[in-house]
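S.,

As promised, the uridine-diphosphate-N-acetylglucosamine run. Input:
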Amino acid sequence: MQRLVIDGEKKLSGELYVHGAKNSALPLLAACVLARGETVLHNCPRLSDVYAACRILTCLGCKCVRDGDSVSVNTDSLSHFNVPDELMREMRSSIVFLGAILGRIGRCRLSFPGGCELGPRPIDMHISALRQMGAMIKEDHGILDCDVGKGLHGAKIVLSFPSVGATENIILAAVTAKGSTVIHNAAREPEITDLSRFLNSCGARISGYGENSIYIEGVEKLSGCDYEVMPDRIVLATYLSAAAVTGSELTVLNSRVSDVEAILPVFEQMGCIVCPYSDRIYISAKRSLKAVKTIRTMPFPGFPTDAQAVVMAALTKAKGTSIVIENIFSNRFRHVDELLRMGADIKAEGKVAVVDGVNFLSGAKVRATDLRGGAALVVAGLGAQGTTEVSDIKYIDRGYESIENAFSSVGASIKRV
Ligand code: UD1
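Predicted complex:
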């Protein structure tokens, strides 16, 4: 089993490039199902989750080919509507294929995503919305069997919570449905905007994305296009956290400031100098870190739950007491026990973690328990005295393109063994 071995407390300096966003690439690859002919996604990250999405496309009968940073998907030979159970288990977010497959083929069979590392992963909002649009969905022994009969139709959908995945599934189902759909209390995450812009480039008619209500006029068909995947805002937050915890100076290229407006003030409160430019962010963390008052994870434009763990890793060395409140997932503090092994002082109960800054962290053997929690251990390891070994790094590979090469390139001592 592979591990990351980190010799901590090395100063980082130079430039890091943010790769394409996992959470955008996945729904975009699902959306390719709807587009006739060929679609080319540029800046498509080399991540295990992206490879899993490509395998789903291949199982459906599409041709999916990677050439450097680009992935082309040709749907001319698309003929199947089953997503194999092992692929659903490998990547629970593959539920986003449901709306796309229904929109294109009218039938879909896949297994229920079940629970995951972050806690239960219900899809009640997805199912209820698709039913309102005319889908007949049977749930039997963990399998979802869906059929649209004479076709999907538009509907007025009010979400009880702005779920990212449900918003994506509804958009995907609605773009070729008959008539108009409106989604109230829609998710506003930048990845929703990226998906909507991509679909519009394929011929869809979506407006209001990035706001509370999204309007979709169904069109007859979509055609493939060339599209550039947005940069990954959580990778950006990880790089900023690494700069903070090591007291370093970094310039992070391919950064979209508008995507991280809730994150940057946290680094400023920690005492870092943060200079956002149009496509890059400079951070200097030369002074010792200070605690921040309270971080509450919220749907966008609030502080993202995905950045909670990496920022907490930086806060372990911030003088004073920081409070972190996790409002989105019920089981998202699993990195805390591992950070404790490294000498952090954190008390977590329910949705609240109290982080008391310590003068130093000490390297230890730790285990990644989920994707962002794993990245947090890497961040902590970079800022810790001595050697840290992070195991179960398959989680980290789901969302970071060889994280060790990125950090080595700016002076860290980190290798995969
Ligand atoms: C997406 C992201 C994930 C991120 C999350 C929140 C992808 C591939 N994943 O996940 O990285 O952490 O958004 O920003 O883009 N819920 C229900 N019923 C539903 C749907 C969701 O109760 O039908 C609950 C979930 O359990 C969770 C909350 O709503 O507590 C938010 O989930 P959601 O926004 O749907 O997250 P995902 O789309 O799964």
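Residues 23, 26, 93, 121-126, 161, 163-166, 191, 304-306, 328-329 surround uridine-diphosphate-N-acetylglucosamine (CB under 6 Å). The chain has two domains: 3-19+231-416, 22-228.

- D.
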